Amino acid sequence: MSRRSVACITGIAGAVAGYWFLARPRHLRWGAADDEVDAPLPGDDLVPNPHLTATRAIGVRATPSEVWPWIAQMGQGRGGLYSYDALENLVGCDIHSADRIVPEWQDVAVGDDFRLHPEVPLSVALVEPGRALVIRGAVEIGEDAPAPPYDFTWAFVLRDRGDGTTRLLVRERYRYTERWAPLLVEAVELVSFVMSQKMLRGIRDRAERGAPIPVIEERA
Q1: Around 144, how many Cα atoms within 13 Å sit in the side-chain half-sphere?
Q2: Which pLDDT value is given to residue 212?
């Protein structure tokens, strides 16, 4: 093996190790405080003993009742995901994130489809209006593939801070059903980190536009 090949392999290994030990732990808890990462949230019981959990959070200068309508109308064909629409649409998601609350999209119930793509429905597993929406399911690998190699929940939880502001928490829980599942999930989770921080900011910005803005100290 040439010196150049050894150097290339060493560089790649170093980059992977650097991401795994330095960047990945921060990505899995972006914006979330210790008590938020450790706290049980609605929907946790649906995927017990997960192999991978990500908890991300953001402060919103609006009450839970002002944030909830933006959560309730999420999904492809509805209010969108408030993230990078252009990137999502490159793979045919046909996402168009709403900038207004649409009354006909406010009804959400257990068993409803929650679509990421016209052909990729997940399912609404839990609804607590004004507090929590939990989605469950997994993306199929292909039409002829067996069941997805993991179980998955995606929870949106609103915590009232009692001062006119809200903490919005988003938690993903993965439990692997195949040994090779981590190879897929880790790649998915990296993309999820990029899209989730944009989504959290998108929800925050939309909710704050129509809400009185209290003066608060930002939470790290």
Answers
A1: 0
A2: 57
Q: 155: helix, coil or strand?
A: strand
Instruction: Tell me what pLDDT residue 13 has.
Output: 36
Architecture (CATH level 2) of domain 31-209: 2-Layer Sandwich (3.30)
State the average pLDDT over residues 92-112: 96
Q: Which two tokens stand for residue 99?
A: 């900038």
pTM: 0.84
* pLDDT reported for residue 38: 96
- Asked whether residue 165 carries a pLDDT value surpassing 60, the answer given is yes
> What residues does each domain of the chain span?
1-30, 31-209
Residue 154, SS3 per DSSP: strand
Sheet order of strands, 166-176 included: 52-60, 166-176, 150-160, 132-136, 120-128, 113-117
Compute the average pLDDT of residues 192-212.
91
- Across the chain, which distance is largest between two alpha carbons, in Å? 65
Structure tokens at 92: 């045919």
Percent of residues in the chain assigned helix, strand, coil, to nearest 5: 35, 25, 40
Burial class (CB within 10 angstroms; exposed 0-12, middle 13-18, buried 19+) of 113: middle
As a whole number of angstroms, the distance between CA 15 and CA 9 comes to 10
